[in-house]
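Sorry, explain these tokens?

***
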Amino acid sequence: MSHTVITSSTTGCSSGESLLNLGYSRTIPGLLKIGQLLSLLIAFVCVCLAGGWPYWHALQFFEVVLLWFLVAFLIFFLMHLFRLQTRMPCINWPLTEFFHYSVGSVLLFIASTAAAVGCGGVSSLVVASVFGFIATFLMVVNLWTSYSVACGPPGRPPPPSTSPPSSSGVDPFLCAHVNF
């Protein structure tokens, strides 16, 4: 006995997929992004609520780095949540996130170290630097897990070229970016 299922959509999506990908928030990368967002938000709120910064320049650098990566990770999270990366295929999103995590983990580690050194015993600044280190750890874990997606598994040769070999014996893709 066969059954026929007819579905209708009022959202305008013809592929049968919903606009919101709530399943992403339950995956490991989604949970890591939520953890990063929460730790960066807690650190930013602690820095903002601290009265009298002992080392103003170090803590201002920490605050700027926190705010930048909080906004960037919120954009990445919303991008995955609303499946925006499928609508912009011209950007290599895994590689973009990989580079963002690599630069972010270094900058946030430096900023968290500067905040820990310059906190002057102010408890909210100590908590902010601890949450900065937690966010750094989560970024490194996310960087490590996203490495195989962005760069391929280690020890595996690159895929063969699909272009025909040139008559000179030189691969045209190797010379395409060299200016003579």
Remarks:
- The chain has one domain: 22-151.
- Residues 123-151 form the longest helix (29 residues).
- The two ends are 70 Å apart (CA to CA).
- Residues 8-14, 170-180 have pLDDT under 50 and may be disordered.
